[in-house]
Design a protein that fits this description.
nine-stranded mixed β-sheet; homodimer; 12 helices; 13 strands; globular; alpha/beta
């Protein structure tokens, strides 16, 4: 049992109302891997330059994340994203994107990374996602993320990728864009008709929701009074979700497993946004995760004290 | 036990992607009253012109809503709102507002309407809300709604009104605007510091959430595949919420009662948007309400199949 994630490993330069940070460790695969590492063995498939140093490697080591498939290209630079969030913290404005080594990323996975029981295809070019999917024949649960850029520029390839995965994790605007359907419930149904049996819809500050054959599940966001930096929330959500699922060692997780996984996803997302980049995940403890999972339970539970005595329209 | 609602009773002319309707029965007090009538006796305090005919009165009669305090002004016209919703159905664009009789609305409540155990001050001028509040000395649970227009133009009066109520029901943009706080959890805390012990935050297609002394409760929206007309969703939510609370006959409803009430609110809101104006509420049945309440329970329940075995950062 293990989770393999393929995606960006990057330096991020971030501006939010709470401050600025230069070159913090980030990238989708980083956030995913740190979150998933609380539940499962994790292999990162990615590429960095030789500006990626011992400090960065130590972050993965501290969480026992396997980076044998993280290629280091001598004389080259790592992917570097610069972004700014305005006061409402919902939309990232990209200031600069330097793909660097990531521009030619086309991984050949090691036998160990290929043998994972769970695979997450983070937001990269859909053709690449498909090639990685084909290398991981043993994966029993496969998830995919994407973004507006690929939906516009590589729609057909993305739809082919969707046909080869079990779970699609997109935000609500992306689900609407991909399906051309403004109503979310219809859009999620269309998405599931492309192949995935689970549509996980991330809704930023509103939480997330999940559409499956068994129905609809709504997951609140944790009501944080301070969101320092939203970067990595979606990937940490995915890390919690797929990490927990992998730990169950069940090739066909049932509805209750998917729901608990989604709550763990929201728990992990709620932590990452408390500090810049992956800094909060780096110091997160298993007790904090367990405690917040219980808080989510409390946030969602209700019981009628007295059953409603509903009145018909003919009563006086 | 009874609920008194004060607010607009109106004709609405509506345009949505699903069609156009002219002069359908609407207004905040109408939607609230029809929703609340499934749980409690309801008195409507409002004003209409003599264009308000037998067909309109029959709608209230069919739900046993008491309209003794609905003043009819001879030779005058009822409030008439015209609005349009674009494809995403989240924002109403006002095309025309004719206040008519509503411009001089300043009700003197009948002894019966004053004696209600529950009072809802729908979205009207805050000074008027306060005067009605003062007339209903026996009300044990009092709620208030408002809108961006009053937050901008009558902020001080609105804050005085907030000091005299138990529950404030606003949408998230209004909560942020009133408190000047972009973070919703902080904004809700500030709102509660103004007096109300319960902050009910309506979030449109994302559902609603509730902040109380005991904590945070998140209520999903029902995942409808077709939303025909969002008009009245917030007032129907309030009608279900306060109607159910009133039926409990508890002067100080506990957290579990407030949570169940919020779910009934979301249930009622999920019906009203299925058709234009109040048409869906007019043909709603108690079995449909009970059935959808159970669906909400299913949408929110989760149980770990196996407790997560969380890994510390020192494990191998």
């Amino acid at each position: 049992m293990a989770v393999t994630v393929v995606g960006s490993v990057a330096f991020d330069s971030l501006e939010t109302p709470f401050g600025k940070r230069e070159r913090v460790l980030g990238g989708a695969a980083t956030h995913f891997a740190l979150a998933a590492s609380f539940f499962a063995d994790v292999n990162v498939v990615g590429v960095v330059g030789d500006d990626f140093g011992e400090d960065e490697l130590a972050v993965y080591a501290a969480r026992s994340v396997n980076i044998d498939d993280l290629e280091r290209v001598p004389g080259a630079k790592s992917f570097h994203w610069s972004g700014r969030y305005a006061e409402d913290m919902t939309v990232a404005h990209t200031l600069n994107t330097q793909l660097n080594v990531f521009a030619d990323f086309d991984p050949e996975l090691s036998p160990h990374a290929r043998s994972a029981s769970t695979l997450f295809l983070a937001n990269i070019q859909p053709e690449l996602q498909l090639r990685v999917r084909e290398q991981c024949r043993d994966a029993r649960v496969v998830g995919v993320d994407s973004m507006n850029f690929w939906i516009e520029s590589a729609r057909d390839a993305l739809i082919r990728t969707m046909g080869e995965v079990d779970v699609v994790a997109l935000n609500d605007a992306e689900v609407r864009m991909l399906t051309g359907e403004p109503n979310l419930a219809r859009a999620a149904r269309r998405l599931r008709e492309l192949g995935p049996r689970v549509a996980l819809v991330k809704q930023g500050p509103y939480g997330a929701c999940m559409f499956t054959a068994e129905g609809y599940f709504s997951i609140p966001a944790y009501p944080l009074e301070t969101v320092v930096d939203p970067t990595g929330a979606g990937d940490s959500f995915a890390g919690g979700f797929f990490g927990y699922l992998d730990s169950l060692d069940d090739p066909n997780p049932a509805e209750n497993a998917l729901r608990a996984a989604a709550v763990y996803g929201s728990v992990l997302a709620s932590f990452v946004v408390e500090d810049f980049g992956s800094e909060r995940l780096q110091r997160l403890t298993e007790d904090e995760i367990a405690g917040r999972f219980d808080e989510f339970r409390q946030m969602m539970v209700f019981e009628e004290p007295v059953a409603a005595r509903l009145r018909s329209s003919t009563s006086a």
